[in-house]
Amino acid sequence: xxxxxTYPGRSSRYLQYLPAVYQQDAEDxxxxxxxxxxxxxxxxxxxxxxxxxxGLEEILEGxxxxxxxxxxxxxxxxxxxxxxxxxSERTPAEFLEWLAGWVALSLxxxxxxxxxxxxxxxxxxxxxxxxxxxxxxEFVRIYTRLAPDINExxxxxxxxxxxxxxxxxxxxxxxxHFFRVLIRLPEINLEQLRKQRQVATAIxxxxxxxxxxxxxDVETPVMRIGMYSTIGVDTLLGSSPS
Length: 242
Fold this sequence. Notes:
By secondary structure, the protein is of the alpha+beta class. The protein is built from 7 helices and 5 strands, in the order αααββαααββαβ. The chain folds into 3 domains: 1-70, no CATH class; 73-128, no CATH class; 133-242, 2-Layer Sandwich (GMP Synthetase, Chain A, domain 3), CATH 3.30.300. It has a 3-stranded mixed β-sheet with strand order 3-4-5, covered by helices on one side. Strand 1 (63-64) and strand 2 (70-72) form a beta hairpin.
């Protein structure tokens, strides 16, 4: 779309820096040819306040509205994954792969944008927890949206709490270097369940200590007061994000 179609009746600010002879045939709401011609250059270099098509200067310095609010953050937003920030204050989606490289993170192609942003935002802090139970739990939580249960099978036998042989209790001590992971996924079709289980397995394989092995269990719980009823911890409302 041409500048004439997008900004009818608008003249470039650059015209005021030229000698008066180039401005004499311009009127309010009826710019002359040179005013319209320079508008195209102004849009590319300085920008015209359009958040969707910012000029070079606006990309670097941002766009501030007349009431001193940020309409578009400056070049620093390209370094901000911002999973909780509005679009105008975080890096565009097409720059996420580039930003992930800054924290030595390889993003899976099957992760949605929100999860990609959260993995990048948490990457540095999670590196310190790599190989630990806490780090594994957080990596899986980012993907599944619900905190997993990780059982190293070293808890004492407790009736009503740890009392199911082979699930949360092992008689005469658990197998060395073995643990169980329970993840909870929303009610979804079998193909989606298979795909998400594969991704969860890949994440666990990447984050667990090399000498350990595990079993992965999947639940698709419904809301049950007193058992599955904490939103974001063991219960999701609505469908799973793709």
